[in-house]
Specification:
The protein is of the alpha/beta class. 53% of the residues are buried.
Length: 670
């Protein structure tokens, strides 16, 4: 069964911890999570004009990661350092802190952005720096690990920007501690086993197949591998000796009989590569003509990544990995990773990746970096485990600032209706980030294209464009308010914004029901520039909440999809292509209709058409296909032409990235 926590659990669902993660006897229980050392913020040397992100990052000497740990109540035995600036935090820490109260939980989201991004990660970091280093509140930021696809493609890294960054930004944006590589390895091991198993079943009869799966010893005895008992249980076979199986039971056990036309499991690579969107495998002569068409996804779209972000402990991750469905048998039954015998091996590959990564901001406040699913093609949030650990360490007077990817129509919607269902946590406040630039675009301004100069309309005062575009922000505020949590608008200030433009956004958003609207200059001033925003968040977190999900899980698949399309996007309805209709029938019959929905949709518009800005009307949401991430615990409809493998632009970011051979420093990363 998929474990979905009830809302009544709220902040107290922390007792289902791993059977593999016991607290050693030398770990002492503590009665509070006060800092072991006094927190020492790093003082910034603010320059005007603001240097490049990488210049700022490299100008600040980070504190040793062990010092960060001591300052924020993490014992040395509870971390595994990777060098001096990053470390894995052991899951045992949750056992020690299980009775501690949680801090205030703040989710940061945004409007539908321009292709340049509107500074949501920068705002998350700046807010955390301000709460921690300026308001002196014990504060953790929780961020996703960026994919190397955008880092080397068009968007660049995701460490924040200006004087609100995670450092070292090079380590944050590149390999970090290898979690994404572990996901790639796990995903592709399963893909390799799918092809190999279909090949072996196609070239062997039942007896030969069974004899190879359960080889006989010299005395004729056979044993099942431990993972095989999972398949036996699924088949209703209670025998424990392979020699006791009847010929019919041997056949049922050994032959998965995967239908290639139903396979949904793709290989992955953490690179934007459009030419892997459709490939043919099995072209080698030794594969005896067993070819088929398939494709690659980008690693962060892998279900393994989604599981890392949604798991609650090691045991839960093992179960989730094992129940991932890769396709159906010819009889129509779902075939899982455990059926293929690989669930345990996947867990071994992911055993270190499950631990959150500890880093720091430019001002020395702590950051957990963990998991990195995209919000447009996955659920777009960092890990439940990172948030849980941070909430316990922050304590009742502290804060955890977590980010939901892209606009509130996708990242925040999935935060509330997927992540919060599985974590049992609900936020005390939602912060929505907007820029004057993006609001002008939504008001009918000229196209914003990465790599080309901005039109003068975005650099000069234009109140009419701005007022029209604020409608996009107001739509998101309405949706956020409907969840029952206070909403703070963070206006991410640019140097070209006029006082009248900033005042107009504040006025219109407060009139529309936002609990506060604050201009924030954290990009240029770090935490100092976000003090007003931080205080507004503190005030909002004191207000009562009445959180509610958008939909109950017992609605049909179509009813849940249409609830999101109509109430969140503002669509008139939903259309389904034949493949989507077929998948709805299959997943309903297989018992997966009770899962939440994770829409794979463009982040650039409320609609499925990225060119439709503002608040479009008179549109429908076209569903071309639906896939099941049963291990992660959601169904994801593919909206329109949404692709799970991005491509490289004409001029990728990597043109500017190099290594200074004299200093050994990376240059050009942003």
């Amino acid at each position: 069964m998929i474990r979905i926590l009830s809302l009544s659990s709220r902040h107290h669902q922390h007792k289902n911890h791993s059977l593999f993660q016991r607290v050693p006897s030398h770990f002492s229980r503590r009665k509070s999570t006060k800092m072991s050392e006094e927190f020492e913020p790093i003082k910034l040397n603010l320059l005007d004009p603001v240097p490049s992100d990488i210049e700022i990052s490299q100008s600040v000497k980070p504190k040793h990661v062990l010092k960060i740990a001591r300052e924020f109540g993490i014992k040395e035995e509870e971390i595994s350092p990777y060098g001096t600036t990053k470390a894995k935090v052991h899951l045992d820490i949750l056992n020690r802190l299980r009775d501690e109260p949680d801090g205030k939980y703040v989710v940061v989201t945004g409007i539908n952005p321009t292709p340049l991004g509107e500074g949501k990660s920068t705002t998350t970091v700046g807010l955390a720096q301000s709460l921690g280093a300026h308001l002196k509140r014990k504060t953790f930021a929780c961020l996703r690990q960026p994919s190397q696809g955008p880092t080397f493609g068009i968007k660049g890294g995701a460490a924040g920007g200006g004087y609100s960054q995670v450092i070292p930004m090079e380590e944050f944006n590149l390999h970090l501690t290898g979690d994404i590589h572990a996901i790639t390895a796990a995903n592709n091991l399963l893909a390799a086993q799918i092809e190999a198993r279909m090949f072996h079943e196609a070239t062997q009869k039942d007896d030969a197949l069974f004899n190879r799966l359960c080889p006989a010893e010299k005395d004729g005895s056979r044993t099942f591998a431990p993972i095989m008992f999972r398949r036996l249980k699924k088949l209703g076979i209670e025998k424990t000796n392979p020699n006791d199986l009847t010929p019919e039971e041997r056949s049922k056990f050994a032959r998965l009989d995967l239908d290639p036309s139903t396979l949904t499991w793709n290989r992955v690579v953490d690179t934007c590569d459009r030419f892997l969107r459709k490939i043919t495998v099995g072209e080698g002569s030794e594969e005896k003509g067993h070819t088929r068409s398939t494709n690659f996804d980008i690693t962060v779209a892998s279900e393994v990544m989604a599981i890392l972000a949604l798991t609650t402990d090691m045991k839960d991750m093992r179960e989730r990995l094992g129940r991932m469905v890769v396709g159906s048998s010819r009889a129509g039954d779902p075939v899982t990773a455990d059926d293929l015998g690989v669930g345990g091996a996947l867990t071994v590959l992911m055993k270190d990746a499950i631990m959150p990564n500890l880093m720091q901001t430019l001002e020395g406040t702590p950051v957990f970096v963990h998991a990195g699913p995209f919000a447009n093609i996955a659920h777009g949030n960092n890990s439940i485990l990172a948030d849980r650990i941070a909430l316990k360490l922050a304590g009742k007077d502290g804060f955890v600032v977590t980010e939901a990817g892209f606009g509130a129509d996708i990242g925040a919607e999935k935060f509330f209706n997927i992540k919060c269902r599985y974590s049992g946590l609900t936020p005390n406040c939602a912060v929505i980030v907007a820029t004057v630039r993006a609001l002008k675009m939504h008001g009918g301004g000229p196209n914003v294209v990465a790599g080309t100069p901005l039109h003068p309309a975005y650099k000069e005062e234009h109140l009419e464009l701005l007022e029209k575009g604020v409608a996009n922000l107001l739509h998101h505020i309405k949706n956020l308010k409907n969840t029952g949590v206070p909403v703070v608008v963070a206006i991410n200030q640019f140097a070209t914004d006029s006082p009248a433009e900033l005042a107009l956004v504040k006025k219109l958003t407060v009139e529309a029901g936002a609990d506060a609207a604050v201009v924030s200059n954290h990009w240029a001033e770090g935490g100092k520039g976000a003090v007003d925003l931080a205080q507004a968040v503190v005030d909002a977190c004191e207000k009562p909440t009445n959180f509610k999900f958008l939909y109950p899980l017992d609605l049909t698949i179509k009813e849940k999809i249409e609830k999101i399309a109509k109430e969140i996007y503002g669509a008139d309805g939903v259309t389904y292509e034949a493949e989507a209709e077929r998948k709805i029938e299959v997943y309903t019959r297989q018992g997966f209709a009770n899962l939440p929905i994770c829409m794979a949709k463009t982040h650039l518009s409320l609609s499925a058409d990225a060119t439709k800005k503002g608040v479009p009307t008179g549109f429908t949401i076209p569903i071309r296909d639906i896939r099941a991430s049963v291990g992660a615990g959601f169904l994801f409809p593919l909206v329109g032409t949404m692709s799970t493998m991005p491509g490289l632009p004409t001029r990728p970011c990597f043109y500017d990235i190099d290594l200074d051979l004299e200093t050994g420093k990376i240059v050009g990363l942003f």
